[in-house]
Design goal:
Number of strands: 0
Distance between the termini: 79 Å
CATH topology of one domain: Serine Threonine Protein Phosphatase 5, Tetratricopeptide repeat
Strand content: under 5%
Helix content: over 70%
Number of helices: 13
Shape: elongated
CATH architecture of one domain: Alpha Horseshoe
Largest sheet: none
CATH class of one domain: Mainly Alpha
Order of helices and strands: HHHHHHHHHHHHH
């Protein structure tokens, strides 16, 4: 069995998706199957045509060119580039189905070409495929967690990659989404007046993600929860525990939407 045969996953959902993509490609341009007879390097010719179509966002055409390289030139040194290109077309399309297919392509690339010079690119794109499927903070965060897991693999395997600044930026976006999801749960507890639960949730956010960009809201609601906690160990020292969080909010987020209320709260507390 060839390595490309191993690429063909038997799952029915994937087969259906492949069939749908294949039918779309067939409808979009059978002309791409033609390679001039006087071309000395047909694999490179196809790759270049695929790259050109990719730049023009002609996803189906680009994918058709790339697949010809992968399917018909198993010994070509540019076969990994074509495999990576297939993943890029799915990522570019951006539909839910395409992102699943793209993640599979990048994962297969990393399995068969782990030492390739573009392995860091494939790992980044794999994380992006999951990140672009992230749901709103109030909803299930499975894809967010998957993207963070793949970003961590990138950090571990490619610490010297030139992609690192961009990857860290995207990682921060995904980490913020996960922290926001947890923060929103705390806000729900706060509004429901279950202050012990809110305190625990807000403290958890600050502990697990101290650089969360929305921590001004965490500071404010944590301080408010500490002040209002009733029947807990926090009641006696609620004021003393709350004030430092108000002060951190003003120190770190002078322009926060919570700044004005925080100033008023501190003035009232200090006047008591």
């Amino acid at each position: 069995m060839t390595d490309w045969q191993l690429f063909r996953a038997p799952a029915l959902w994937r087969a259906a998706a492949v069939l749908a993509v294949a039918l779309t490609a067939a409808a979009c341009g059978g002309k791409n199957n033609v390679v001039p007879t006087d071309i000395s390097q047909p694999d490179r010719y196809l790759l270049e045509r695929g790259d050109e179509a990719l730049k023009r966002k002609r996803w189906a055409d680009a994918r058709e060119y790339y697949r010809q390289v992968v399917d018909n030139y198993p010994q070509s040194p540019i076969r990994p580039d074509a495999k990576l290109g297939i993943g890029e077309t799915y990522l570019g399309e951006g539909s839910s189905e395409s992102l699943v297919m793209g993640a599979n392509e990048f994962r297969e690339f990393l399995t068969f070409y782990p030492t390739n010079a573009k392995a860091d690119v494939a790992q980044f794109r794999l994380a992006l495929c999951h990140q672009r499927q992230m749901r709103a903070a109030e909803r299930d965060q499975t894809e967010t967690k998957e993207s963070l897991r793949e970003y961590q693999v990138f950090f571990d395997r490619y610490p010297n990659s030139p992609l690192m600044p961009e990857v860290r930026e995207k990682w921060r976006e995904a980490r913020d989404r996960l922290s926001m999801a947890s923060y929103r749960v705390g806000v729900h507890y706060f509004r429901s007046r279950w202050y012990p639960g809110a305190v625990d949730r807000f403290r958890e956010v600050l502990k697990e993600d101290p650089e969360f960009t929305g921590r001004d809201g965490v500071y404010f609601h944590l301080a408010e929860s500490l002040l209002r906690a009733d029947g807990t160990a926090d009641k006696k020292n609620g004021k003393a525990q709350a004030i430092p969080y108000y002060e951190r909010l003003l120190s770190e987020f002078a322009q926060s939407e919570y700044a004005e209320d925080t100033r008023k709260r501190l003035q009232a507390l200090n006047a008591q």
